[in-house]
Amino acid sequence: MLTILALASVILLGIVPQQSEAIVIYTGWERHALVGSDIRLSCSFFSWRWTSDDVTFSWSYRADGARDSIFVFHYTGGSPYVDNKGPFRDRLEFVGNPGRRDGSILLKNLDYGDNGTFTCDAKNPPDIVGRASSVRLLVFEKVPIQAGVITGAIIGVVLGLLVLVVVIYYLMRFLVARRVFNLSVSKHGKKGKGKEGSQQRQLWRPPPVTCLPLTS
């Protein structure tokens, strides 16, 4: 009986299709780059399933101030497909590793017009349900100093000044204590010399002279 139930369970599991589970996609939040430089935009995903041979990656781009997005890259069936008519033709390269759930792309020779939002979407069948992740690209002539760096520098300067004040305070206390100690030693030394001098004067006092009467 147990054998029949086990066989029935196996048959039912084979017949019922696998249910898809959520897939979580990761990209950076914001990237900064210089004009004329290259930048890697990373995209990876988490899935409870093994990496499927049918895994796909798609990248879209929406320029700053634009309403619509355009597809600039797609990976499917083991082959990458780069848009050869859009703003990144001849400047986009696939540098990911789908087997390791990496769908990163490389943008080359950046310009101010490349500022915008890049969105990555991934599917790992049967896990196809998930929210795409976006990263914003900002291209500058000079990469600005981030607020966190400035805050850290200010905190470092303030801590350095506090340490310097504490060191100066204890150094002054040490010098004052040393000065008081030297004065105290000098004062006691003078008193000791005075007592020794008075004792010496008492020791060397001449004896009294006794006058004898003259006899005739």
TrEMBL record:
Region Disordered: list its residue ranges.
187-207
Q: Which UniProt keywords apply?
A: Disulfide bond, Glycoprotein, Immunoglobulin domain, Membrane, Signal, Transmembrane, Transmembrane helix
Which residue spans traverse the membrane? 145-171
Q: Kindly list the places in or outside the cell where this protein is found, as annotated in its UniProt entry.
A: Membrane
Membrane-topology descriptor: Single-pass type I membrane protein
One Pfam family, short name: V-set
Taxonomy, superkingdom: Eukaryota
InterPro entries attached here? Ig-like_dom, Ig-like_dom_sf, Ig-like_fold, Ig_sub, Ig_V-set, Myelin_P0-rel
Kindly list the GO CC terms recorded for this protein.
plasma membrane
Q: Where is the signal peptide?
A: 1-22
Q: Which GO terms describe its biological process?
A: myelination
Residue intervals of the Ig-like domain: 17-138
Q: Has keyword Acyltransferase?
A: no
Family of this protein = Belongs to the myelin P0 protein family.
* Protein name per Swiss-Prot or TrEMBL: Myelin protein zero
Organism (species): Oncorhynchus mykiss (Rainbow trout)
